[in-house]
Structure formats: structure tokens, C-alpha cells
Amino acid sequence: MKHFLSMLLIAAAVPAMAQKADKVTDPVDLINPLMGTQSKPSLSNGNTYPTIALPWGMNFWTPQTGKMGDGWAYTYDADKIRGFKQTHQPSPWMNDYGQFSIMPVTGKMRFEQDARASWFSHKAETVKPYYYSVYLADADVTTEIAPTERAAHFRFTFPKSDSSYVVVDAFDKGSYIKIIPKERKIIGYSTKYARGPLPNFKNYFVIYFDKPFVSANAWHGKTLAKDTLEIQSNHSGAIVGFKTAKGEKVDMKVASSFISVEQAELSLKRELANDSFDVTKEKAKAVWNKTLSRINVEGGTIDQTRTFYSSLYRTLFFPNKMYEIDANNKMVHWSPYTGKTMPGYMFAGTGFWDTFRALYPFLNLMYPSINKEMQQGLINDYKEGGWLPEWSSPGYANIMVGNNSASVVADAYIKGMRDYDIETLYKALIHGANNEGPITAVGRSGVKYYNELGYVPYNVKIDENAAKTLEYSYDDFTIYQLGRALHKPESEIGIYAKRAMNYKNLFDPSVGLMRGKNQDGTFQAPFNAFRWGGAFTEGNSWHYSWSVFQDVAGLSKLMGGKEKFAEKLDSVFTLPPTFDDSEYGEVIHEIREMQIANMGQYAHGNQPIQHMIYLYNYAGQPWKAQYWARETMNRLYKATPDGYCGDEDNGQTSAWYVFSAMGFYPVTPAVDQYVLGAPLFKKVTLNLENGKQIVINAPANSDDNRYIKSMKINGKDYGKNFLTHSELLKGATLDFDMAAKPNLNRGTQEADFPYSLSTEKK
User: Fold this and answer.
1) What is this structure's pTM?
2) How confident is the model over 513-540, as pLDDT tens digits?
3) Residue 178's CB: how many other CB atoms inside 10 A?
4) Alpha carbon distance 478, 407 (integer Å)
């Protein structure tokens, strides 16, 4: 207990009691899409942009403050907007594809991105998931946007002017534009993408205005075309002009397609029809409220409630739909692998290294039907590309480590997804687990060493070898779990159960942590547990040593038993934020974010350690998980532009908050369990897709009362440190009696601990 008391002393003071939020009726209007936008390459407070879109929509829109091709498309501290960009960008580090922009100007015919840019203020900016509005001071124009899944509705309010314009910028790297004045129409395509190759890639768009053009010009590069309204060049665009009265509103409808202009037309007519701008806006708002209302929270502060729904909003975008609905109402998609139009589902824009941890388990609990579509999309990834993606952007991106598609596939099936071709996905997992891919981030880099030695060696010029070993070991466990669920013979899947124990090969008892190991069986030397990179991925040994999701009991045993294990967990918070950046030659942003958080070695701003708080439940000290989960929510999340503590990463860091606020977390995807923390709100209601409800009551909850004194499920006392997915799906009422002091007797016996492979084997 002395270690715990010392941790209490370093905790930041908690703000005074704030106003409580009653039951939420319009959750979408509590969201701040600017949460996380005050970011830059050297320090991420989320690295997000305001995403104006529908949940999992094919196309997103965002105001663009950055230059063409800059991954930081919108940054809160910027002064000027260069355009309103259609985007599919998962993160600034991955950059974008399928992008073009729209920008109103007045006075001179300015179309280059710097010349057309306008000053703006957040004071004259309204940002909602379903609606964006901003006053562009230099143009004296207000721009409004309302989205659909594959189209959008713009409304420009112009001043009195004989020279009001709208610029369409199809960007560089190869683009096409054609203006058709008699139809008040512009068509074109962009081929710009950041990560490829992408065969036959084009993002086709079609744009209609409700006002005739007074002037129409195509342009390329810095040159205004004089004798043509159609241009194909490296960098093509259009500028159309109007004569406007003061306060005159000009509507513009736009849609795009990865297949053809005709398909874009079809989506525009299907999704926008003859709707007015206000109807489009209200429809989008209704979709958001319906989607968000799967979870209702009550009894938190206004700030907590805003932070919850702002985080929930971020979990509902990626991976986003790449499939379209053709003239015969059939699902079709452009394939990033073959360049052809193919039947069926396709999704893109996610990195499984991040999202296997909580985002996909969250979808399996709250939005299983969309993940069923995503699983069907993975089948098409495999059939068309030969591998499952580990990072899709939108094809195979050569970044990050692990073979975590195995976790994403296995968890969906084990959590109840059915009626899709799971056998093909199982074959895809076996293929990926036993072969190196055409790039290091597909299949398994170093697989021959891993399968022969039980680890990827440190000294054979394979980067991030310890991280790969630990993740492959967990991924093997998930394959074993799926194989068992599919009733595969032990002779076929037993090897994966064996490999699931490979994590032990990297544990060095002399330091009590994971460490790179050479081909001859010796550990790497010299060793510094605070050294980032090298054997690890965006972290150090203190972060990655906990990556034994499948067998925390086995890890605890290696560390000397549950008491020693808990002390090791304590050390993460009591150690100073020391770091060694010599592997990188500079302080990468993930290091800086750990350093400034004032939580020791706990680097919540990156994914590897995010589950670690919940491991106290496997050590018989669940009250520490309750304490630190609340501390992390209090300190590191807020619905403000600097509201995240590192990269938000496609919903993962947000999903951590959403799960933790509900009071439990999926430490081990592909297992039918969630590990308990403690709820943040007095009441949370989960409206499941199957029509059942999970009601989480904690009426005594407060900032002081963060510990579970006792708990009941459906009226019966419950003392375990985990919940089961299958039981929750039946509907449940969880009653938490919260207190200001930890209950040092609850959840302390091994029978109360969550699942571990080694204890199951016993």
C-alpha cells in the first residue's frame, strides 16, 4: 500500500466540482470536432482535423489551412483557410488520397492556393460533425457545408459583387477538369495520393451550382486558360464567376467516386436529390444523433459529457467505406490492389497496430453490423491483394509492425459476427502468419527466425524485432482462438498455442523486462530500458514489456508473482520520465508527449501501453486500475483543441476513453471478456443492436468516489475483475457502489482474475 500512497501524492489536484449534465437529448451538439486540432509534427495533441462527414462515410470534408500535400491539413493555430477539402486522410503521418478542394473568392480572379487564401477567426467559425460554417474575411463570404456519405452540400453567402467566384482545385500529380456552363456543372478527377502504388487511381467528382455562370475559366499550374474549358495537366482547376447581390446565397452540390464520373452523378442524385441545404444539414444531424444515442451517459460534469461524446465521435470514422452503390443497387468498389471495379464491400484508412486494441472490440460491442461489413471488406482485400492489410491507406501501406489483422478477424468472430466467409479469412490469417509479404508491413517480417527460434533476433538487421516478437506471439494466440472456435483440429492449431508462449523468450530475469535477443540466444548488450526504438516500436522496454495480452498471469509469474508484478506496474508511474532518444537521433513527438504528461513512464499518447493500467486486476489490486483509469481520463482528455495527449490514431485513443468511462476495457481481444476499471458517470445506458440494454449504475460516483466498494450484476453480488461479452449481450444491469477509499478485499483472489492462457491450460 505504501507504493500506492506515494502515487496518490504525485497526483495532480482535481478541479472543484463542476455543473452536472442531465440526460442528453442532442449528443451531436455536445461534440467539439476541433478536439485535438492544436497539433504540429513536434507535439501532437491529437493530430486530428475537424471531420465534417457521416459515420464511416466514404468522403469527409475539412477546412484546409495547410498547403496542398501537407498532412497537417487543418491546424487550430493557423490564420488562413486555403480551401475546403474533400479528404480521406486517416492521420497527418499517413497523409491523404482522393483529395480536391473548393474555395470562394471575390474581386480578383485568384485561384492559386496562397493568393486565394483568406484570414478567418474561430470566433466566426461553427464546427459540428454535420455542419461547418466559417466567415472568410478577405472574400467577405460565409461558407457552409453539410455532408452525406458520398456527397456534400455547400452554401456560399456572397457580398454585392460583379466578381464573385468559386475555385475548384483538383491538385497536382495529375488531374483533369471540365466546365459545362449550360448545365452549371464541373466534372474532373484527381490522382494525387501519398502512399502507393495505387493502380488506375482516380477520384472523380461532379459539381453542380444553382446559379448560372457569368464567367468560366479552366486553369493549370499558375496559368489561366484562354481558349478551353477542359484541361488535363499536372495541376488542373476551374474558376467560375457570378454576379451577386449582398447576402445572396449560392448553393453547390458535389459528389465523388473512385469508379467514374457517372457513378459520382448517381451518388449525388441518390444522396442529395432535390434537398435544400437545410434539409441536408438536418438529415446529417439526425444520422449522427441516431448513431451516437447507442450510448447515453448521465450524471457527469458538462466537460466530462462533452469529452465523452467528442471521443465517441472519433471512433465512428475509420475504417471508412470505399464501396459505392451502382445503378443496379449493387455494392461495388474500386480495388486499390487491381485497379479494377469489383463487387462487394471495401473499407480503408486504418492501422491495426493501433486499432486492434480497443476500436475494433468497441465496434463488436456497440456497432457489430458495420464491423461485419468491414470483415467482408477484409475478405476482398485478401482475394484482390493476396494479403490482409495491416495498414490500409487505401492499399497496403508499409508502416508499423505486427500481424494484428489476426486479432481483428478473430475478435469479430469470437464476439458473435456470423454469416460471412470466415473460412477464407482463416486461410488469410494462416497465410499471413507463415510468410513474409512483399513489403515488411504485410505478413510477418522475420517469420523464418520467429518460427525457428521463437523470436525475431536483434542482430540480424530486422528493425523493431522485440516488438514484432511480442505482437506475433499475441497474434498467434488469436489464430489459435479462432481455430478453436471453428473446431479446427489440435494438430493444425496447436502450433499457434505453442507460439503464443514465445513472449517468454524475450524476458530477461536480470532486469525484469523484455529485451532484444541475439540469434545465438544471448541478450542484446548494452541494454537501456529507457531507450526508445531499436528493438521496440515507438516506445521502450518499459512500454512494451506489458504486451502479453494473452497471458498476463504468465508475465506476472516471470516478474516474480503478483506482488512483484504490481510493484513493477507501480514503477511505471513512480519512475521519472527519463528517455534515451539515441536510436532516433532526436526527440520524437511520442517521447515529448510522455515527458510532459507528468505520469512517469506511462506513455498514454501512444498505443503499446494503453492497456497496462488494467493489468492491476491480474495482480489482485484492482483499486489501482480504478484510480489510474480515472486519473488518465481526468488529466489527459478534454474536449478542447489540445484535448488529446498524443496521436488520436483512427479512433483507438478515443475508444480507450469511451470504454474506460463505461467502466471496463478489452485487454485481450479474441477473448470473451472485458477487464474492470470503474465507471466515470453516475449512469450509462448501452443500447445494443440486438435490442437489449446494458445499464451501468453508479449513483454515488464523484471525483472522490472513484473506487468500487461492491458491485452487483442483475441484483446479485459480483466480485470478479472482469465481465463477459456473451453475458452482456443478453442485457444486464450493473450496479456499482462507489466509495472514496479502495476496497482492499474485493477482487484479490486468483479466481477473480481475468483470462490468461497459461492458467486456462492448467
Assistant:
1) 0.96
2) 999 999 999 999 999 999 999 999 999 9
3) 18
4) 6
